[in-house]
């Protein structure tokens, strides 16, 4: 296993994948807080993004300057192939566990 | 986001300050976006609070930390520093090549500036190695003596024999030692030529303590009277290739001496100086009494010894104990003595001590020398800094582009340091060459300089290179920081040139240089004038047509009777010192009641001296021959004045050291018996036929050679076996001013160095100033400006700076030279005059004017069309 992916990291990765071409700081932030109903700060998000970048699961590039941000560029993130592999590994593992689970996991 | 709703400025600033160089663009964008959203949904207060929270969260965020560390240690700076260095080197070489005039002027200036510093360092390195070749040199010490007389403290490198002989016996830690008495000299008769040799009375252990080796003979011959050991140099001088061992030397003082040993040639880097050594047995002075009871008259007596490691303190305290035995002897003379150990390795360059053995190189003089070399070097460094900032116009674009390409401050600084170091290293070649040329001349001017060989050793080369690199770095720091500060936008804008003019600092530096040049120039003028003045000083005694015959210990009465028979000879007199030359013979007059004593100088003369020399007798009678008790003497006015000052009740009856009494029968007017650099000292003229060494003969003849031959004829009739030796009084006096000529030479040389450096500096600045204004000149010319207008506008600035320099230099140098320099060389002159100052200034202005004229002329002659074509 190349690097351990934590729960929050997995969440961020999947959100980036979800947003596809539109995955920049605020968009990720809003998406997570909407879906997961979590209070999240920009600082915390960037910490995680930086760690993920270090581990090689995401890459980033600066977009074109936009008017609404005072001419400041957005940094877009996209997931790398190793992240895709890792995510599907995790999903396979989970599916396996779900399928083999002796206890009924469905919520009644 | 509405225009009037800003995120809290303080928070923004905090974030920016915290982030430093880290890239924040996207994060700030995110923050603003979030702020905008909350502002629309929940109003300003909530938005502000959230903004603050976000910023605070970012302060602790790993993401920002990472960005910061990335920005601080950019990888390109760390890695491949060798590649970067190569790049610096390449660009430096290109730049130096591009600015040929600038490079040339700087290399020349720095090499001149560094040459004296190289000399000083080479001398220091050499002195540091003095005496290090002796066995266990680090364990060898000598005893120095500090004598206090009424608060006056004098340190001697000699020590009382009564102390040192006791130390031999009592202190067990001393495992080898040698006593040396420096007073041994011998005038050797060598085929009719007299060779004056200097050396030591010493003992065989001399060869244990010091590393001198015998080529032939054994050290034990030092125990036998009448035997000497000579150096290889003296042996070659006396006997050439012949075997010197066993030969006999005819000496004036000691009769026949037998050469019982020859030393092998030894390195000159030792503080000991001798041609010839002999034992203590030769002179009766060194009897048992000498070893046990000589305390206070210890001059010329030295003691060197080796002690076991770590015992220095013990030896010191035991020596102090032994010294107490002599305390009473010193107290009788109202003096007090303390003794110290001085390591052999600390002697050169060491503290300034009286009664040095041989010739000493002391540290204070060395420091002065270093100071002077810095005074020469610093202007050269200033020049460099000055000029390289001045040509900033050409370089600022380069710096701007480098910065835009991502160059760091450090890179710019490194670039300029490499450049300056490169210039200094190339200057080193030239200045090493200059050093090589001047070192022998220097060694011949310094007292004892023949001990300095200035061998080029690996240490010396390393020191030189290190010095050049250090000079380079220190010189380059100024320009480097200047360029590192340039903002790229300003540098790249086409009107950047307006920013870089001759700024205040540079004007100040130029004024400093002009002042220094003027100071040196005035100094040369003053010295030459003083030399002229003291040489044409009207001496009170007769100098013309006077011959000096060296009596060489012959019977003076005989010589006198022979000479006065000749009717052409007008006057004959004798003395122990040639008037007009230095006088070394000093004695003390003791106060009859208290312990006071006064030092004065004495000359032994015959009864004709006062008359012959036309000395004015103010009171009393002249000297007469014949034994008188108390002895009849004549003194000068100064003597009486000083005696009165010291409350001597009876100034006409003087008690000399040794209980001898002198009765003053006459007082003469003060006259300059010594060269004019000596102040008027109290002096006594005494009669003693045995002390007369010079015969003054007045013989007015046009042909000096014939006159000299005539005297020689008389001499040969009396003493056919002794060669006749004579000079003119004027020649002797001229020789006495040798120190003055050496002073002028040294000062003149330094001045030439300083002046050429500042001329180069001026030239550089003029070139820069005119080149920067080629376009202006061209436009002025097309608009009809005359040549004179152009000269005025181009040279105006320099003339203004010169005027300031003149205002500083004239009073400063007047004060300095008038108070310090002149009194060193001439105590009787009129001080600094207007004429020499005026002449010196004119020469300086002429030199500078030539540089300005040359450059200004060059640019005004150019066709304006050539300069304006490209615009």
From TrEMBL, chain A:
Protein name: Transcriptional regulator PadR-like family protein
InterPro entries linked to this entry: Tscrpt_reg_PadR_N, WH-like_DNA-bd_sf, WH_DNA-bd_sf
Organism classification: Bacteria, Pseudomonadati, Bacteroidota, Cytophagia, Cytophagales
Residues of the Transcription regulator PadR N-terminal domain: 14-88
UniProtKB/TrEMBL annotation, chain B:
Residues of the MacB-like periplasmic core domain: 103-319
InterPro entries per record: ABC3_permease_C, MacB_PCD, Macrolide_Exporter_MacB, Permease_put_prefix
Compartmental location: Cell membrane
Full protein name: FtsX-like permease family protein
Location of the ABC3 transporter permease C-terminal domain: 372-488, 749-864
NCBIfam families named among the record's database cross-references: perm_prefix_2
Stretches that traverse the bilayer: 101-125, 367-393, 413-435, 460-484, 508-528, 746-769, 790-817, 837-856
Alphabetical UniProt keywords: Cell membrane, Membrane, Transmembrane, Transmembrane helix
Membrane-topology annotation of the record: Multi-pass membrane protein
Lineage, opening ranks: Bacteria, Pseudomonadati, Bacteroidota, Cytophagia, Cytophagales
GO molecular function terms attached to this record: transmembrane transporter activity
A Pfam family assignment: MacB_PCD
A GO term from the CC aspect: plasma membrane
Organism, scientific name: Ekhidna lutea
Highest taxon above the source species: Bacteria
């Amino acid at each position: 296993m190349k690097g351990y992916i934590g729960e929050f990291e997995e969440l961020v990765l999947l959100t980036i994948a979800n947003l596809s071409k539109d995955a920049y700081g605020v968009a990720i932030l809003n998406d997570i807080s909407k879906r997961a109903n979590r209070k999240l700060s920009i600082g915390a998000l960037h910490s995680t993004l930086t760690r993920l970048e270090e581990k090689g699961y995401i890459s980033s590039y600066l977009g074109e300057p936009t008017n609404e941000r005072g001419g400041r560029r957005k940094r877009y993130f996209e997931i790398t192939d190793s992240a895709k592999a890792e995510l599907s590994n995790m999903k396979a593992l989970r599916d396996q566990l779900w399928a083999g689970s002796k206890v009924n996991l469905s919520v009644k | 986001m509405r225009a009037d709703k800003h995120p809290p400025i303080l928070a923004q600033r905090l974030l920016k300050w915290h982030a430093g160089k880290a890239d924040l663009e996207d994060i700030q964008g995110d923050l603003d976006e979030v702020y905008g959203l909350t502002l629309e949904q929940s109003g300003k207060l909530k938005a502000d609070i959230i903004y603050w929270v976000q910023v605070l969260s970012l302060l602790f965020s790993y993401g920002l930390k990472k960005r910061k560390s990335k920005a601080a240690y950019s990888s390109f700076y760390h890695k491949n520093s060798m590649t970067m260095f190569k790049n610096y080197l390449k660009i430096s070489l290109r730049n130096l090549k591009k600015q040929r005039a600038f490079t040339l002027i700087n290399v020349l200036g720095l090499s001149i500036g560094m040459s004296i510093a190289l000399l000083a360092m080479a001398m220091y390195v050499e002195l540091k190695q003095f005496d290090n070749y002796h066995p266990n040199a680090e364990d060898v010490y000598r005893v120095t003596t500090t004598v206090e007389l009424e608060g006056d403290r004098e340190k001697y490198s000699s020590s009382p024999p009564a102390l040192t002989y006791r130390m031999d016996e009592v202190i067990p830690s001393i495992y080898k030692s040698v006593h040396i008495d420096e007073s041994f000299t011998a005038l050797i008769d060598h085929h009719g030529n007299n060779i004056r040799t200097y050396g030591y009375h010493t003992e065989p252990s001399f060869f244990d303590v010091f590393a001198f080796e015998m080529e032939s003979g054994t050290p034990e011959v030092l125990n036998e009277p009448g035997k000497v050991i000579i150096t290889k140099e003296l042996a070659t001088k006396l006997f050439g290739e012949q075997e010197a061992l066993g030969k006999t030397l005819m000496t004036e003082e000691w009769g026949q001496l037998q050469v019982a040993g020859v030393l092998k040639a030894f390195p000159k880097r030792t503080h000991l100086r001798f041609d010839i050594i002999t034992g203590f047995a030769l002179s009766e002075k060194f009897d048992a009494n000498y070893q046990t009871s000589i305390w206070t008259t210890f001059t010329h007596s030295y003691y060197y010894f080796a002690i076991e490691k770590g015992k220095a303190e013990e030896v010191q305290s035991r020596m102090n104990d032994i010294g107490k035995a002599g305390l009473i002897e010193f107290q009788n003379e109202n003096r007090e003595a303390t003794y110290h150990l001085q390591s052999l390795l600390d002697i050169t360059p060491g503290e300034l001590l009286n009664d040095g053995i041989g010739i000493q190189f002391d540290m204070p003089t060395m420091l002065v020398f270093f100071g002077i070399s810095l005074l020469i070097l610093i202007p050269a460094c200033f020049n460099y800094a000055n000029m390289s900032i001045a040509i900033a116009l050409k370089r600022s674009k380069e710096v701007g582009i480098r910065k835009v390409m991502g160059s760091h401050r450090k890179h710019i600084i490194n670039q300029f340091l490499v450049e300056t170091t490169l210039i200094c290293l190339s200057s080193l070649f030239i200045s090493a060459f200059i050093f090589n040329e001047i070192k022998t001349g220097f060694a011949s001017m310094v007292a004892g300089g023949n001990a300095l060989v200035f061998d080029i050793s690996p240490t010396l080369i390393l020191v030189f290179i290190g010095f050049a690199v250090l000079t380079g770095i220190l010189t380059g720091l100024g320009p480097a920081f200047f360029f590192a500060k340039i903002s790229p936008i300003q540098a790249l804008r086409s009107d950047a040139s307006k920013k870089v003019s001759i700024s205040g600092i540079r004007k100040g530096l130029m004024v400093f240089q002009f002042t220094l040049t003027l100071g040196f120039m005035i100094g040369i003028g003053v010295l030459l004038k003083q030399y002229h003045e003291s040489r044409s000083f009207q001496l009170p005694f007769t100098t013309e047509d006077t011959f000096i015959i060296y009596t060489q210990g012959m019977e003076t009465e005989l010589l006198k009777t022979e000479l006065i028979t000749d009717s052409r000879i007008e006057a004959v007199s004798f003395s122990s010192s040639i008037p007009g030359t230095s006088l070394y013979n000093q004695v003390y007059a003791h106060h009859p009641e208290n312990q006071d004593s006064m030092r004065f100088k004495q000359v032994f003369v015959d009864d004709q001296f006062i008359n012959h020399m036309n000395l004015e007798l103010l009171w009393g009678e002249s000297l007469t021959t014949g034994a008188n008790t108390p002895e009849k003497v004549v003194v000068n006015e100064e003597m009486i004045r000083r005696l009165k000052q010291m409350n001597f009740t009876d100034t006409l009856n003087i008690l000399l050291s040794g209980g001898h009494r002198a009765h003053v029968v006459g007082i003469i007017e003060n006259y300059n018996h010594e060269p004019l650099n000596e102040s008027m000292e109290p002096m006594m003229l005494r009669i003693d036929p045995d002390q007369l060494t010079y015969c003054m003969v007045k013989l007015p003849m046009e042909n000096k050679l014939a006159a000299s031959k005539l005297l020689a004829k008389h001499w040969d009739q009396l003493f056919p076996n002794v060669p006749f030796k004579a000079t003119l009084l004027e020649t002797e006096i001229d020789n006495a001013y040798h120190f003055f000529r050496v002073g002028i030479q040294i000062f003149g040389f330094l001045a030439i160095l300083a002046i050429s450096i500042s001329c180069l500096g001026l030239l550089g600045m003029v070139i820069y100033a005119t080149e920067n204004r080629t376009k202006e000149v061209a436009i002025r010319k097309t608009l009809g400006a005359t040549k004179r207008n152009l000269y005025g506008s181009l040279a105006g600035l320099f003339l203004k700076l010169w005027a300031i320099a003149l205002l500083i230099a004239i009073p400063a140098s007047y004060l300095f030279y008038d108070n310090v320099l002149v009194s060193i060389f001439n105590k009787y002159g009129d001080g600094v005059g207007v004429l020499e100052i005026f002449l010196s200034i004119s020469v300086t202005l002429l030199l500078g004017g030539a540089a300005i004229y040359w450059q200004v002329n060059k640019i005004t002659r150019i066709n304006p069309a050539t300069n304006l074509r490209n615009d």
